[in-house]
Amino acid sequence: MGGAGGEGAGGGGAGGGASPPAAAAGAGMGAGAGAGGRGGVLASRAASREGISPLGSPAGMSPAASPSGRRGGGSSAWAVRPAPPTPAPAAEGSARDLALCAGGILATLGAYGVLQERLMQRPYGARGELFAFPTFLILCNRALTALAAGAGLICSGQPLRPRAPGGAYAGVAACNCVATYSQFALLRWLSFVAATLAKSARPVAVMLWGIMLRGAAYGAGDWAAAAVALGGSLLFGLSGELLAPGAAEAAKTAAAREGGMDASAPLFGGPLLLAGLAIAAYLAFDGLTSTLQERLFREHEQPPLAMAFHTGRWALLFALVAGLASGELPGALAFAQRHPALLRDVALLSSSVASSQYFILRTIRNHGALTFAFVMTTRQAVSVGLSWLVFPKAVSPGQFFGVGICFAGLYTRWYLQARRSRRLRVAQGLPPAAADTLPSPVGRKG
Description:
By secondary structure, the chain is mainly α.
């Protein structure tokens, strides 16, 4: 990724569920991809597959048939005039494609958040038994994701063979499994709202991994805006409920047993410490997952469905081994026998995850890891609102104030990225309209 290149370079790849014209458009509109490098090569390949030569003349037309290359002064009246290219319905890297990706992520993961809270924090049965087997959830999620992605590849006529070394897929899958397990474990100790807002540091993790793995550099404005968003999220979490219902009940029980001691005292040596470790693990491995996915898209051209299928297969294997080794898989099956409603909730959760994978991978591939990080930050706000609606909670003025601060940082950072992208594209000689099409966040080389 050169200096003008950016995270959107992966958007120039062919495929990804788009037709060859869409792939060609994506290659031309990727953040800096059209500056005489990888984007031009991909556009040429896509054009060749469509039957159009890179220069716009009909493919297969020899120089002898060309007016500029005819032999012996022969007539050129029969020369074929190339038809104007048909615009793609939703070009990779376009604003419409971003809206499609973001809308899909918000809808599917909004439902996912509600189901997460139901599964991990709401009791089942008359005895109020809590589900505590996150590896089983990961196993079901990845199984359905791999199945849906494989079916999509077959129905679209795409090959099932891997398009990258198996180790590359396994690395992405392993990081994703650790991040997902940490996310589920966090809900044992923190309320859903507090756990969701604790993830607002995700863009910072993505930037740190970008610096370490790609040598990317980010301006002071990027860091300041991210800090403002994180500060607002922290204020939101600290101004309202913090503990999960089960942890709060345990604190009250411990306080009563200890003769009225402060209910928060036993938590700082246990649940809150474990919650902090879970947050750190989630941020580290989730940020690494996005960075590795983007690099995989950039180095090995492949559609999002292929990525979902092959990483899903590896994640399924990892979850199965971990579930059997830890005993979580037998424990979850015994829980389901006692509470059959669990299977319904798990099926809905897995369906929402499987549906979201296409939009997630398409966003990272076409718009970069940082754009995906901001969509996910917006998804956090949607998840918080849905949590309030489905499981009513008291909301303090500090929480509303924290939301305002968080989104101020979010959109300030988006503006900085849009301005930087516009300057890069104008410097490359692209039309201003193309520069304004997508404020693509890019990680600059130093």
